[in-house]
Amino acid sequence: MLIGREREKGAPVFWGWYVVAGAFLLHAVSYGARYSFGIFVQPLTAENGWSRTVISLAASLNMLFFAAGGIVAGRLLDRIAPRWVASAGAAVGALGFILSAFVDTPLAFYLAYGLLCGLGSSWTGIVVGNSSVGKWFIRKRGMAIGIASMGVSFGTMIMTPVIGWVVKERGWQSGFIVLGLTLLAAGVLIARIFLGKTKPEAYGLCPDGHRDQPVGDSSGMPGHAAAVPLGEAMRDSRFWILSLCQGAAVMTVLMAFVHQVPYALDLGIDRLAAAASLGAIALAGFFGQFFFGSLSDRLPDPKYSAMLGYLVMAAGLAVLLSATSVEGLFAYALIFGFGYGCLGPILPIIASGRFGRESIGSVYGVLNFFVAGVGGALGPIVGGVLYDALGSYRTVWALDVALLLAAAAGLTALKRRQGDGKTG
After folding, report:
1. Nearest Cα residue to 21 out of 158, 151, 137, 114
2. Three-state DSSP state, 236
3. Per-residue pLDDT reduced to its tens digit, 287-327
4. pTM given for the model
5. Can you tell me the distance from the alpha carbon of 119 to that of 378, in angstroms, rounded to the nearest whole number?
6. Which one has a higher pLDDT value, 8 or 424?
7. How many Å apart are CA 317 and CA 400, to the nearest integer?
8. Domains, the chain, ranges and CATH?
9. Are the C-beta atoms of 164 and 39 separated by less than 8 Å?
10. Sign of CA dihedral 152, 157, 159, 161
11. C-alpha angle 251/252/254, rounded to 5°?
């Protein structure tokens, strides 16, 4: 049946915006916790005598299990309400952080932070949050996912300085415990309040809250693509181009997030200032996520938004190559952070257009495995190995610039699907 064209005055707010709010808050808690890892690198080295390669392997394993867990999460999201997935993730991730406070061997650290925190993060991260948002929007998909992705930066901006202070004043063990308790309490509460519904058609609604067509029929909406089964998507060259390019970009981000704090400390920069540089990335990324998400709604193809973001990130890392002071570190962080803002929203936006909204959970989950599981997992360990071998991070940052330039060039080959609307 047809129901009014727009939300009338006094009518309830479209539930999709509650899903956006829930995803924003869930991302804030989950990624604020995950991206605090660099704060723990030097204290773990000082207390346990572990090399940066050994410690970086924990971050790489975390990304690997994060990506593997995302496959399961994505398939579940096509069947059940996201609150169940997110609540389980908050509990598992919290257990991993708390156990990390008591590790005394690399193996124990790998199991606690790598395995448990990785799985927990995958069920509270962007696969769950952005896939859920993507099911509720078509016309405003870019803006909605961009707003939800801003939670990643908001949480990092708030939590990294706080955890840096906790570690400085109370020790690294207290830092891990605070992260675990925060994730458990906030994650479960957010999931239960905001993420209890699956998709608009199941509740007699249309995507975007635009009630201008039969309920459950979105085929005529701009940017709508018919669902592509996962197996067919994986046989599509665009799946692998997107995986390779986005994976290279994510590799540089994880390399930077894990190693920029110890790099700053090696330069003699104060610990709190070094930790605050992560917050500066988050602050710039907060605006970048909205900018690149909204920009993708206005361009002929959202891949151009991603390409611009990659180039901005490369410019930031070029600044880091010559940085020797707090001012240089923060200049890098603001430039790189703004470009980094493209990563959260752009993958689900492009995937929804190329492979369809109805199957976005399954396709995005597997895409994320290759992007985060391969690219993200390689980032920290490659950075650690290069540092231990060369005694410097200059080669690490130069490699990152090259990877980002190659990724931007590679996206030129990402063709649109025949018959797709503007956003795909």
Report:
1. 151
2. coil
3. 998 899 888 888 888 899 999 999 999 999 999 988 888 89
4. 0.73
5. 17
6. 8
7. 7
8. 15-201+219-413 (1.20.1250.20)
9. yes
10. positive
11. 70
